[in-house]
């Protein structure tokens, strides 16, 4: 094997592929990055759950394959000088030459490396930037407790031209709708994708204009898998098992009142006031016409109070939230104005941005459970 490649192109491709390398590989070869040089360079990584493959242009003299330590290759490529890179194999070694720098890596047995899963059939495409933003908005509400795998996923529902993403950790729920271009207008599917994998993948595929989403049908090719491709990169992930919560029934159909507050000052005020909130203690919000008063702490400990302008429709209300969960939602709504709709101080409130036109449903909703106030 012998090929030449631009240093930045190699570093970028290796860094992207290395994300999938397992921290503690169940078998030694999974710590390797598979290198295949033909008319293009293909780099692959796989941990039995997630696979990643990238292809990029190279100047090939001799085609071939090799398997080398992925993490070591990533560290080397990150520190190479700004010159073209020449990669060659010599027996059980791979050599990288870049300017006056030369590295020699030992290879692993290529024949022991598992075959990457096939990409499921393409189901449709969505703008990469919008997809990354939508996934980021939803992934924040996914659970992090691996003993309840179902809650660590993002539910992906596809119905015609609409994709709905939803996740919950039982204390908050995030739902985002977006439009996409399905391969078939009547396409319908449901998948539960690990949230960390989905967020990482969506963020890393913004180099291309669109992301192609591939979903296997029951009993067909790629069953139990989801695939994403864009900009010469493709990744597959095994889906999670389990029934997701019936989240639509959790979203209130009507509200007793709603308040609107400028998002940026609201975020800063919550950050300031929550400085005195001990672990697991809430920030209290008292809404009345024209203002909201934020408070944290009690008489026996440090206290903070701050008032902000707010518009209120409905009766005055005092409601309390976990400050971290509230900040997550405020940072995710992507709107200058935060709209908080509530029914009672003890029932979930829904945080959204202000819709572009009155009467329109917002495409992102963040439901947050209040903390019950005592006394």
Structure write-up:
- The chain is of the alpha+beta class and 375 residues long.
- The protein folds into three domains: 2-112, Roll (DNA Polymerase III, Chain A, domain 2); 122-248, DNA Polymerase III, Chain A, domain 2 (Roll); 251-368, DNA Polymerase III, subunit A, domain 2 (DNA Polymerase III, Chain A, domain 2, Roll).
- The chain contains six helices and 26 strands.
- The protein has helices spanning 7-18, 70-78, 128-139, 195-204, 263-273, 323-332; strands at 2-5, 32-37, 40-46, 50-57, 59-62, 64-69, 85-90, 93-98, 101-106, 122-127, 153-159, 162-168, 172-179, 181-182, 188-194, 210-215, 225-230, 233-238, 257-262, 283-288, 290-296, 304-313, 317-321, 337-342, 349-353, 364-368.
- The N and C termini lie far apart (74 Å).
- The model has no long low-confidence stretch (mean pLDDT 92).
Q: In a few lines, what is going on in this structure?
A:
The chain is α+β, with helices and mostly antiparallel strands and 375 residues long.
Low-confidence regions: none
Integer-rounded radius of gyration: 25 Å
Number of beta-strand segments: 26
Q: How many helices?
A: 6
**Class by SSE composition:** alpha+beta
CATH architecture descriptor text of the largest domain: Roll
List the helices and strands and how they pair.
Elements (H helix, E strand, L loop, with lengths): L1 E4 L1 H12 L13 E6 L2 E7 L3 E8 L1 E4 L1 E6 H9 L6 E6 L2 E6 L2 E6 L15 E6 H12 L13 E7 L2 E7 L3 E8 L1 E2 L5 E7 H10 L5 E6 L9 E6 L2 E6 L18 E6 H11 L9 E6 L1 E7 L7 E10 L3 E5 L1 H10 L4 E6 L6 E5 L10 E5 L7
Antiparallel strand pairs: 1-5, 1-7, 2-3, 2-6, 3-4, 4-18, 7-8, 8-9, 10-14, 10-16, 11-12, 11-15, 12-13, 13-26, 16-17, 17-18, 19-22, 19-24, 20-21, 20-23, 21-22, 24-25, 25-26
């Amino acid at each position: 094997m012998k090929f030449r490649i631009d240093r930045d192109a190699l570093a970028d491709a290796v860094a992207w592929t290395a994300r999938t390398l397992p921290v503690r590989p169940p078998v030694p070869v999974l710590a390797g990055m598979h290198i295949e040089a033909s008319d293009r360079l293909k780099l692959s990584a796989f941990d039995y759950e997630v696979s990643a493959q990238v292809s990029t242009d190279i100047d090939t003299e001799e085609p071939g394959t090799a398997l080398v330590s992925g993490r070591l290759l990533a560290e080397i490529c990150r520190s190479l000088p700004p010159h073209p890179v020449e990669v060659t194999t010599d027996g059980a070694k791979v050599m990288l030459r870049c300017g006056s720098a030369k590295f020699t890596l030992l290879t692993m047995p290529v024949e022991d490396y598992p075959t990457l899963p096939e990409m499921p059939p393409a189901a449709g495409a969505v703008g990469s930037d919008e997809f990354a933003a939508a996934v980021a908005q939803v992934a924040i509400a996914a659970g992090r407790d691996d003993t309840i795998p179902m809650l660590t996923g993002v539910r992906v529902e596809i119905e015609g031209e609409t994709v709905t993403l939803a996740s919950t950790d039982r204390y908050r729920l995030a739902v985002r709708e977006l439009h996409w271009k399905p391969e078939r207008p009547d396409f319908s599917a449901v998948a539960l994708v690990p949230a960390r994998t989905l967020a990482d993948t969506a963020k890393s595929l913004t180099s291309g204009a669109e992301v192609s989403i591939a979903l296997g049908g029951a009993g067909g090719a790629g069953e139990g898998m989801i695939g994403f491709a864009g900009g010469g990169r493709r990744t597959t992930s095994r889906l999670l098992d389990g029934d997701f919560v019936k989240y639509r029934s959790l979203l209130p159909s009507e509200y007793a009142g709603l308040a609107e507050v400028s998002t940026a000052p609201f975020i800063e005020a919550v950050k300031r006031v929550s400085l005195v909130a001990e672990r697991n203690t809430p920030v209290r919000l008292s809404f009345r016409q024209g203002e909201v008063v934020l408070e944290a702490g009690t008489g026996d400990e440090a206290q903070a109070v701050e008032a902000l302008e707010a518009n209120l429709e409905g009766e005055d209300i005092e409601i309390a939230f976990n400050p971290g969960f509230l900040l997550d939602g405020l940072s995710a709504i992507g709107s200058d104005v935060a709209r908080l709709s509530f029914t009672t101080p003890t029932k979930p409130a829904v945080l959204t941005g202000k819709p572009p036109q009155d009467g329109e449903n917002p495409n992102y909703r963040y439901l947050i459970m209040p903390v019950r106030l005592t006394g």
